[in-house]
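Hi U.,

Before I forget, here's the chain from the pilot set. I'm dumping it here mostly so it's searchable later in email.
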Amino acid sequence: DDVLEHVYEKSGKKLQYPLAGKDIERYRKLHTGGSSCLLKLHGDCHREDGRVLGVKEYTDAYGAGGGPREALSLIYKTRPLLWLGCSLSIDRTLSLAGELAKTDNQMPRHFALLQQPSNEDILLAREKELSSMHIFPIWYDGDHDECIETILVGILDSLKCFEGMTI
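Structure:
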């Protein structure tokens, strides 16, 4: 649950606002100030409040007309996301991404770090399914936590090369 925070610490950066579960309603206010946010859609393992794992918790947080659902819809439609630490299989927040992608061709491209399936047919089917939701997988093969941390540290290190440059 804390991999991304650790990676940022190692790179000398700090995430300003981790938003867990229903707290994502605060995104709109925080984002307008230009702050960076970490969205923990299912909550934070260190906090019992705000957890979104069971059916009732999902309905309360991401049900139609709810503030977190509206905030998440706005995020999907306007900001590229990187999914970490999830399988992106059966999930209501993923279903929302699929619904939005069907009606919004301008939705940004999103990314997910996912363990690579061993079967080529499954891999191709997953890529097709995810790309229909504007989600593009970055496959890794190996230990989950170690691979994700290595990829993220590499990305952050390569971004240091661009500091101070206009791209």
